[in-house]
Specification:
tt1808, chain A; 8-stranded mixed β-sheet; 6 helices; globular
């Protein structure tokens, strides 16, 4: 007996809808024509020293004990936005927040953050501390971006504020790769920054 499809013709799905689906990430992405692979990613890293790193680290370490990070908004304002603002300023990139995107009825919604440079870096907040479902939502948003951007590889990251995980979309192979590495904040702040900046500088 064939398995019933997850996505129904004639139905409308937002990016948030994919986060809420109770199915496995590989099953959801397969319905959109993509294969999910989990492996170690070799991500671009800048070799240029990030001069503001000590100041950013000090600011985060000072405020973290003072703020409860139980809400999505708190994590975004205290941990995610400050890092992305620093990266955007350093790289002179455009940072879009709650960026609306509509490709079709299966690929539409708002991107939490879109860092636009020669490469697009998409960052999605993982709601309810759920990195797995957050990655699924981010992957679907990468698929949507791939329909309108002329790039062979697209980069994304999912974050719960104090933890980050990267992913890539290979357009020609229709493959999404989920990095098995996780980067914690503030512990891996320097490595995270070198990757974020490296992606924005990637040709």
């Amino acid at each position: 007996m064939s398995k019933a499809p997850i996505l129904q013709e004639g139905q409308s799905y937002t990016f948030r809808s994919y986060f809420e689906m109770p199915y496995e990430p590989d099953e959801i992405l397969a319905e959109l024509g993509y294969t999910l692979v989990r492996s170690s990613l070799s991500l671009p890293k800048t070799q240029t020293p990030f001069e503001r790193l000590p100041e950013l680290r000090q600011r985060l370490e000072k405020i973290l004990p003072l703020v409860s990070l139980t809400s999505e908004m708190a994590r975004r304002e205290i941990l995610v936005a400050p890092i992305l603002i620093e990266v955007a300023t350093y790289c002179n990139c455009q940072l879009r927040i709650e960026y609306p995107l509509h490709v079709n009825n299966w690929l539409k919604g708002n991107l939490d953050y879109l860092l636009r440079s020669t490469q697009n870096l998409l960052v999605v907040e993982a709601k309810n501390d759920d990195m797995t479902r957050g990655f699924t939502q981010m992957a679907v948003e990468l698929i949507a971006l791939s329909k309108i951007e002329e790039q062979k590889i697209l980069y994304g990251a999912v974050t719960i504020g104090n933890g980050w995980q990267f992913g890539t979309l290979n357009v020609s192979q229709q493959t999404i790769t989920q990095d098995i590495a996780l980067y914690s904040i503030p512990g891996n702040l320097e490595e995270l920054i070198t990757i974020l900046v490296g992606i924005t500088q990637e040709n």
